[in-house]
Amino acid sequence: MRPMTTTTHRSPRRRTVVALAIVLTILLAFVVRLVDIQVVNAKEHVDDSLAMGLQSSRVEYASRGSIVDENGVILASSVNRYDVQVDPMLAAKGVTTRDDDDNETTTPWPEIAAQIAAITGQDAAEVQASVTDAVAENPDSRYAMIAKNVSTEQYRALVALGLPFLSFPPQAGRVYPDGAVGGNLIGFVGSDGQPLAGLEAADNDCLASTNGKVVFQQSRDGVVLPGTETVAEPAVDGGTLKLTIDRDLQWYLAQLIAEQVQNTGSLRGTITVVEAKTGKIRALAEYPAVDPNDPTATAPVDRGSRAFTSPFEPGSTFKALTTAIGLDSGSYTPQSTVTASGSETLGDARVRDAFSHGPNVYTPTGVLIDSSNVGISKFAEMIPKETRFDYLQKFGMGSISAIDFPGESAGILHPVSDWDTQTFYNTAFGQGLSVTVPQLVGAYQTIANGGVKMPLSLVEGCTAADGTVTDVPSTQGTQVISSDTAHEVSLMLENVATQGELASKIAIPGYRIAIKTGTGEKVDENTGAYKPDAYFTTMIGFAPADDPQYVVAVNLDEPRTVKSSAATAPAFQKALTQVLKTYRVIPSGTTTPELPKFG
């Protein structure tokens, strides 16, 4: 037998090698072509697709920043809501599906419109018309709006329908979980998301977001080509605005001022709490209040913060400032005296006290306890009017606060050159000028803080999406009066709390309290004259007076059941008590030293 040659073994192997070589050559050709298309000549092909109208883009929506209280509790936040958009050209054709036996079924647009309407709560004919009207106007129409701002639940139900011609661009909705609590301060946004009032508007630079942009390729029937989406411009969420407000305290005081306004028949009222050593506003409750979720339910005049925008005559609360100015300027001492009757003519001015009495030899303390207009006027005669004016400006009168709240008023402080004799005396006891609530509490904060005026603040800071913190309030105070003067005036105000006629109504066991009341006449906005039998009543003070921590002010506009400062006493006592509990302030270890009323 002849030996077998190797030729028969090599022929199949050779064929295999040749076949593999051919396959590899073909694959290499494809790779080279792909590299040519996607890398070498990529720009040319992208330009071609753009020219054919195959590239599109969509907005990548960012969220407006949240507003939180001092403890991080959310006061305002954004939630996603969705617009429902439709491609009329595709929708008009209906939806065609195939079953397992490859049988086609077409669901017409009117039937689909009814399904959509059942979810959005619209009339089916209205939804149907959004497509039929668009196609009638333009058979190639690719856009129409079915509904705006549907909820997340509605959005999910619409997505579940699996309709390829629907799209759902998100829209940021604004939610205020606590409703009217702090609403006058927080403000609100419009239906388009634009800030309209309050801190929403004032701090929009912090809260505003920047939408991004995503570009992608799509087929002629509108289907997005997988893998073609690219973020052209990243979306940037708004920052978090942290307030100085304590939400729980704000809630309590909101209920309290609403109750007090209604009980006294007042037009409106406010309760303000300021941290004495920092100037931070821990609560500012107002009534009537606006619910930012539905601002149109509140009258336009009550949608802002009247505490900042509506100045009033402070009345006798100003006597503490006149006293402080006289002591600090060296014009008199705590032991100085004046003789004052219930009604006197001073120059060509007439000054009266709220009650009739014969001549009393008053100390500055006595003037404050009895709230004598005549007495404080005679002490004011010892102070050069230019000096008094300069001090009032240092206390913050005549200028807006550091908060610069939208629409904030500077009040009215006429220049000295405009003071006639009556104005000279009236300004000593809080008439002939006007102040805002922040101006008044800022002045008392100065007295409570050893004579150092701290800039008032409502915002702790803004934390941007990248963690950067800005808008931190200034901690730099201004020495307006000496610490000795502040201490002397504080002791006098303590004696108002212990010796005054409202002592039993405002006492808080265990705490030394400093207070002053004020009843200011109200100017008729229509005539410019004083409105008959109409007053602003105020009670303002701080505690513990031996180491002041918090300033509290209650202000009522035109109380009717009680028209004197006594109208504010119940709310003041409850408010200050709650503040001391909220911040766990240690009780005073001493009692108020009694100062003489008369010389």
From TrEMBL:
<dbReference type="GO" id="GO:0009002">
    <property type="term" value="F:serine-type D-Ala-D-Ala carboxypeptidase activity"/>
</dbReference>
<comment type="similarity">
    <text>Belongs to the transpeptidase family.</text>
</comment>
<feature type="domain" description="Penicillin-binding protein transpeptidase">
    <location>
        <begin position="269"/>
        <end position="576"/>
    </location>
</feature>
<keyword id="KW-0131">Cell cycle</keyword>
<dbReference type="Pfam" id="PF03717">
    <property type="entry name" value="PBP_dimer"/>
</dbReference>
<feature type="domain" description="Penicillin-binding protein dimerisation">
    <location>
        <begin position="61"/>
        <end position="192"/>
    </location>
</feature>
<dbReference type="InterPro" id="IPR036138">
    <property type="entry name" value="PBP_dimer_sf"/>
</dbReference>
<dbReference type="GO" id="GO:0051301">
    <property type="term" value="P:cell division"/>
</dbReference>
<dbReference type="InterPro" id="IPR012338">
    <property type="entry name" value="Beta-lactam/transpept-like"/>
</dbReference>
<keyword id="KW-0132">Cell division</keyword>
<dbReference type="InterPro" id="IPR001460">
    <property type="entry name" value="PCN-bd_Tpept"/>
</dbReference>
<dbReference type="InterPro" id="IPR050515">
    <property type="entry name" value="Beta-lactam/transpept"/>
</dbReference>
<keyword id="KW-0645">Protease</keyword>
<protein>
    <submittedName>
        <fullName>Cell division protein FtsI (Penicillin-binding protein 3)</fullName>
        <ecNumber>3.4.16.4</ecNumber>
    </submittedName>
</protein>
<keyword id="KW-0121">Carboxypeptidase</keyword>
<dbReference type="InterPro" id="IPR005311">
    <property type="entry name" value="PBP_dimer"/>
</dbReference>
<keyword id="KW-0378">Hydrolase</keyword>
<keyword id="KW-0472">Membrane</keyword>
<dbReference type="Pfam" id="PF00905">
    <property type="entry name" value="Transpeptidase"/>
</dbReference>
